Amino acid sequence: MLRRALGLSLFLLFALAPAVQAQEVIRSFQSDIRIAADGTLDVRETITVTAEGDAIKHGIYRDFPRYFVKADGTLGKVSFDVQAVTRDGAPEPFTTQAVEGGTRIQIGNADETVPPGVHTYRIDYQTDRQISFRTDHDALVWNVTGTGWRFPIESARAVVTLPNGARVLSADTYTGAKGETGQDATAKISGNHVEFQSTRMLYVGEGLTIEASFPKGVVAAPTSAQIRAWWWRDNLGAVIAYSGLAAVFAFFFAQWFARGRDPKSGIVVARWDLPKGVSPALADYIDESGLTGGAWSALSASAIDLAVKGYVTLDNLDQAVTITRTSKPVPDDLPAGQAVLIKTVEQHGGAFTIERATGKAVQAMSTAFRAAIKAENRDVFFHNNRGVFFIGLLASVGIALIWCFTSGLSSDSISAIALTGAVPLLLGILIWKALRARRRRIMVAARLLLTVAVILLGMIGLLAFLVVIDSFGDVMGAGAALTMVWGLVVMNQLFFILLSAPTKRGRDIRDHIAGLRLYLTLAEKDRMNLRGAPKMSPAHFETLLPYAVVLGVEKRWSKSFEIWLSASVAGAAAAYAPVWYSGTRMGNVAGDIASFASSMGSSMAASVPKSNASGSGSSGSGGGGGGGGGW
Known about the structure:
Helices cover 43% and strands 22% of the residues. It contains 17 helices and 26 strands. It has 631 residues and is an alpha+beta fold.
């Protein structure tokens, strides 16, 4: 009643407006429904409107629901085939498009306007699966007008015609807003047809629903072939989603089994010898299947390695880091990445300062550094199998596109479902970062922050999944589509990682690096208990420091060195002053070097210029229905 009162108020408001603001209204809505013996409905809707150029500028649109709830509670999909559309007796252009829960017929031409006045639109279409097969009789429950029109309907009429020789047993009407059971309509049975007529205006949000019952046998029950065809219509989206998901998984799994399985790992023991021919940057490249963190950590480790070997000196100032070339000649077999760094320093007159003013040069150095490392060592220590991965990625995109074109969902629904894929994408990235942080012994606060982020995003993801499922609960295939999108995102992330596999040589070096990491993190007393382990010394500390940097354990390694210095003869700590480094904390050079090693990569990254970002019936029940408006 509240909706009816509101609709009446709105109508009176329009009715009392000046004539120049005349209301657009549906003057009559007539539906002629012919039921064929096979259950197909031929429907002709004749809609007479008053157009004033307000909502009705180019024409009208009609929304037709495509989904219904079957006896088992699942959704079924009816056919909808528009056969002809006219305006005032002449053919009128129209288009159809998927909208929420159905199909929209948009009638008119965007380049033409409808003259003000009274116009009659006629829509002819066919639909099926609208008959309700009951125990002792069958029936058509048909939502004649729908409750979604944006205009009031002055008169609504429907005529249902059965096949010749049949008779209508009974007829019922329901009027009002969706779910109401008003009786503001009449029904007149005459042989094989029945006429329904509203007895009052139907306001915005109201409609007319009819029910016509007839004996069993008038309409043939669905055949086995029809039931199979309807099953495919109902479940095509789900079949594409789940079979596509299974196919992508099968492809990725087969490729992983053939190419991506890691060689068996050896026994990892603490070791202090360096992998032969493996520079600090290359150690990072092999251990992580690529350079981590934009290669800044590998760059800073390379600079320290060059300094320790006497090719450059490092000046750690308050706001900048300066790399200065020494007179010591570099060997021909200098690692490729370190050769790039030396070249950059020499191009800047033998002294290269890392600060904002040289940001572009730092960026160019980083780009050349990464390219040199990759070019020299591609497919030597590991295979990332990116070509195979991209085949799987393209297959995933292809399956998603096929589903989009066959789902029948509106573009807004498809976009909403696709956007939810950002949740597992971000969650996967955070989980991967958290695992890497644990492996590389990132500080506790950072690991805790990542863990909290994973938990929160996981909860948000679950909530988003449930909300979308609830929001699209009446849209066929939405659950399968959401599962497909999330599944494809997770699978592509997972196999992007799993398809990368070390070679036998790469596996051996990774085991060697793991042993070195173990050695660098041992307590001094445990390290001294290792048979044959070298004694701590400045030279030993400096030799392994660049590797500690790329392995993320430079602070623990420097702490061990500080403890050794403190335990050495008096004044040893103060006496430690490497010629390759000058910093700001003269009282604790080892600690200063550790902080410098940790922050040098951050300083490089900060100097780079940032880019600019751009059963019983009711009104609204049964088949048919929908609504419409002007455009």
